């Protein structure tokens, strides 16, 4: 049986492909992405992750039982202890210190995406929140798999390869699988067909906001 994520993905395939195969990703993978696009993306992504941590904290609050609370907490720790450290490390290599990052203003695209996820979670239940989080967590895993063999060329090749390695690596792939399994368990309890169109809309909107986030990086290099 397909997972709930696979169903949402199939039902919003055009929007999903725009996100996963965005020009930003393709050029990161072949090494032709301008440095300024990547630097802008990285800096905004740090601000994104701060808000995304709050969304995971909200998942702990929205959890229906203790086991869901533990899952939410593990997700929160994965971001605050792993994902954010990766960013601080990458940013240091690009001349951006932690205090530089925290002082930056959030771009409209960062505000739009993160507040959309938070608001969806605040007004809905755990399933609404997981569906809003899914494009981020599961999309990057797919991007990692699709670009596992990529050999970026040019001066930024090792930085771009490090970024791809993070998401194609076993550790991240299993975090993503665990999230998809968790969403399946929530769907078993809370999904009704009457709710499906609204969940699909959330998934599709979050995927579009991911596309806008890539585009923000590209626009900075125009
Ligand atoms: C715009 C944007 N979208 C998705 C991710 C990926 N991501 C965010 S949190 C996290 C860890 C989940 O446990 C991962 C992989 C990102 N960094 N930036």
TrEMBL record:
The keyword Hydrolase applies. Pathway: Cofactor biosynthesis; thiamine diphosphate biosynthesis. It catalyses: 4-amino-5-aminomethyl-2-methylpyrimidine + H2O = 4-amino-5-hydroxymethyl-2-methylpyrimidine + NH4(+); thiamine + H2O = 5-(2-hydroxyethyl)-4-methylthiazole + 4-amino-5-hydroxymethyl-2-methylpyrimidine + H(+). Keywords: Hydrolase, Thiamine biosynthesis. Its EC number is 3.5.99.2. The keyword Nucleotide-binding does not apply. It is an enzyme of class 3 (hydrolase). Residues 15-219 form the Thiaminase-2/PQQC domain. InterPro entries: Haem_Oase-like_multi-hlx, Thiaminase-2/PQQC, Thiaminase_II, Thiamine_Salvage_TenA. Catalyzes an amino-pyrimidine hydrolysis reaction at the C5' of the pyrimidine moiety of thiamine compounds, a reaction that is part of a thiamine salvage pathway. This is Aminopyrimidine aminohydrolase.
